[in-house]
């Protein structure tokens, strides 16, 4: 039995509408639509969403916890939203807002323009790039795409990294030469 699948989902002001296998989740921040598989059924009891497998088959049990997590993320997204923060580390590395997107100056001979997908908002606060939205997958993928412009390098740690990310630095040539 799935430990995650058994947990009920608190709705926290979100409304759920089902039409066959299509589930609409509406909240204060927006609306998300999910297409659940045949192996899973959902029901609302006492203000909580309960996900159950249709059968005890392997496929149904495999999908149970996954779809409970996806539905919980949808409820959290439309009520609270998701945020990922990125920081620039490096001399002369700058970012500025350009329309809906960003203009990154990260050590290349040119500036890099980055446009977010629909439903994702980019802001700059206190030197951090804040990626916000209601869809957890889109927010995470957008943050990963921004990081991919200039990932942290392993010798000095310069680049774009997630806020609070620890980069393991390698010793350079001087450290190797004196060590042996």
Please write out the topology.
Layout: H1 3-6, E1 9-10, E2 15-19, E3 22-26, E4 31-35, E5 40-45, E6 48-53, H2 58-79, E7 82-89, E8 94-98, E9 101-105, E10 112-114, E11 120-125, E12 128-133, H3 136-149, E13 159-162, H4 173-179
Antiparallel strand pairs: 1-6, 2-3, 3-4, 5-6, 7-12, 7-13, 8-9, 9-10, 11-12
Question: Distance between the terminal alpha carbons, to the nearest Å?
Answer: 55 Å
Q: What Rg is obtained from the alpha carbons, in whole angstroms?
A: 22 Å
The named CATH superfamily of the largest domain: Ribosomal protein L6
What is the CATH third-level topology name of the largest domain? Outer Surface Protein A, domain 3
- Percentage of residues assigned to helices: 25-40%
* Largest pleated sheet: 4 strands, antiparallel
Strand content: 35-45%
SS field, number of helical segments: 4
CATH architecture of the largest domain: Alpha-Beta Complex
Task: Describe this protein's structure.
There is one protein chain. With 180 residues, the chain is an alpha+beta fold. The chain folds into 2 domains: 3-79, Ribosomal protein L6 (Outer Surface Protein A, domain 3, Alpha-Beta Complex), CATH 3.90.930; 82-162, Outer Surface Protein A, domain 3, CATH 3.90.930.12. The protein contains 4 helices and 13 strands. The chain has helices spanning 3-6, 58-79, 136-149, 173-179; strands at residues 9-10, 15-19, 22-26, 31-35, 40-45, 48-53, 82-89, 94-98, 101-105, 112-114, 120-125, 128-133, 159-162. The strands form 4 sheets. A 4-stranded antiparallel sheet has the order 11-12-7-13, with helices on one face. Strands 1-6-5 form a 3-stranded antiparallel sheet. A 3-stranded antiparallel sheet has the order 2-3-4.
């Amino acid at each position: 039995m799935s430990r995650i699948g058994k947990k009920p989902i608190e709705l926290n002001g979100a409304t759920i509408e089902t039409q066959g296998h299509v589930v609409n989740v509406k909240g204060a921040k927006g609306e998300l639509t999910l297409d659940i598989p045949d192996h899973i059924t959902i029901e609302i009891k006492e203000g909580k969403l309960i996900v159950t497998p249709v059968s005890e088959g392997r496929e149904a049990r495999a999908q149970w916890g996954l779809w409970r997590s996806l539905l919980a993320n949808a409820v959290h997204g439309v009520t609270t939203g998701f945020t990922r923060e990125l920081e620039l580390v490096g001399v002369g590395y700058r970012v500025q807002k350009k329309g809906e997107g960003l203009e990154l100056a990260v050590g290349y001979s040119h500036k890099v323009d980055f446009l977010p997908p629909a439903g994702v908002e980019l802001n700059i606060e206190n030197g951090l790039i804040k990626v916000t939205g209601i869809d957890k997958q889109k927010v995470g993928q957008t943050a990963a795409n921004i990081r991919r412009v200039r990932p942290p390098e392993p010798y000095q740690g310069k680049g774009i990294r997630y806020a609070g990310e620890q980069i393991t630095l390698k010793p350079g040539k001087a450290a190797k030469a004196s060590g042996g």
